[in-house]
Structures are given as structure tokens and as C-alpha cells.
Amino acid sequence: GENVEQHPSTLSVQEGDSAVIKCTYSDSASNYFPWYKQELGKRPQLIIDIRSNVGEKKDQRIAVTLNKTAKHFSLHITETQPEDSAVYFCAGHSNSGYALNFGKGTSLLVTP
Amino acid sequence: DVKVTQSSRYLVKRTGEKVFLECVQDMDHENMFWYRQDPGLGLRLIYFSYDVKMKEKGDIPEGYSVSREKKERFSLILESASTNQTSMYLCASSGANSPLHFGNGTRLTVT
Fold it and tell me: N or C: which end of chain A has fewer CB within 10 A?
């Protein structure tokens, strides 16, 4: 199936700084790339997604960019706040088109 | 609001026991999934189903089976639980126009 690589595995930033998490994928036919946020002890929840016909998408302080040629996409969080601290997962479609394959996650810590 | 409900939050079983993890969704979603979450390994797909009575293996199906007799319910079965199946299990569902939604997870410990 789709192979999704995610970097870095941990990221520590000061409150107010920006955070960037990057993912690469292997299947050039993949066309949907969501990002999930998982707070401690809670379920992963969708925060933003992008389809392959779009290069960038923004929602307040978060944005996702997609480079289809290079097969990578990134999550950008600006003006980080302590409540942004969580594990973030990127994902892409598998060959079946039904199931998502996830990266291994990035643990983001925002320190006051 | 989509609701994916997993019947147990915590479960402790003995090695060799048959274990059933139940999941129900209330949004009439066609697709249902079972993922396993382990530290450093992320979310790994065990099995998924895109229709009643249909099932497809994911990346790590060994030691597991599934059952989908009704559209809203997707069960994960450990035929003979082993200690290496101690993990967090996450059920999820999605529809044609609805993204993937997760349940709260079942933390299974096999002793």
C-alpha cells in the first residue's frame, strides 16, 4: 500500500513560533491528504485536509501545502499556543482508495 | 456529529483467550476500519470493510479476524490473544462524503 514518511518525530517550539511538519508519500496516484491531531488520552481528530487538485489550504493558524511533483506535503502551524501540543499524524490514500495509511506521528510540544 | 463507539475503554485478557472488540457507528458510513496504535509505530491498519460482509486485510492482519454482519457494526477478533497484541485499538468509519472519524479507542492488555 501507500507508504507515508513523516518528519520530525518530535518537535519543540516556543509559544508564538511556527511549527512545520513534513510528510512524503510513495504512490503518485494518491489524491487525498488529511492531517489528524491527537491530544493525550484522546482519539485522533481531523484538523485539515487537502486534495491533489489544490496546492495550499488554510484554516486560521493552520495551513497545509502539497507538492505533487515532489510527492510531499506539509503542515504549518503559526503563532503556536500550548494547546497545540499534541501528536500530529499525516496520512495518504492506499491503493485501495478506501483506507488511509498514516505516518508515524510527530509529537509537538509548545512551551510557554 | 459522527459518533464511533467502542464498547470497552480498557480490557485485560489472558494469553490464549478469544477476544472481541466491538465498534458501532451511527452515520450510515459504508467504510469501517480497525487500526492499532503503538508508541513510535503510529497507526497501523489491521483490517477494513467497505460494505456489509466484505473485508480486506490491511498491513498487519496476522492474528486477527473481523466480522461485519451489519452496516453499523464492525468487530475485531483475536482468535488466541498473545502478549504482543497488547496495544491501543482504534476503530474508525468514513463515508463517500465524510472523512475518517475515530472512536475513543480500546486499550487491550494481554497477560
Answer: C
Give CB contacts under 8 A, 24+ apart, made by B54-62. B56/A96, B56/A98, B56/A99, B58/A1, B58/A99, B58/B33, B58/B34, B59/A1, B59/A101, B60/B36
pLDDT per residue rounded down to tens, chain A (112 residues)? 678 999 999 999 999 999 999 999 998 888 899 999 999 999 999 999 998 888 999 999 999 999 999 999 999 999 999 999 999 999 998 666 778 989 999 999 999 9
The minimal CB distance from B40 to the residues A96, A102, A104 is found for: A104
Cβ separation A104–B104 shorter than 8 A = no
Q: In a mutagenesis test of the B interface, which of A26, A98, A106, A107 is the best target, namely the one with the most B β-carbons within 10 Å?
A: A98
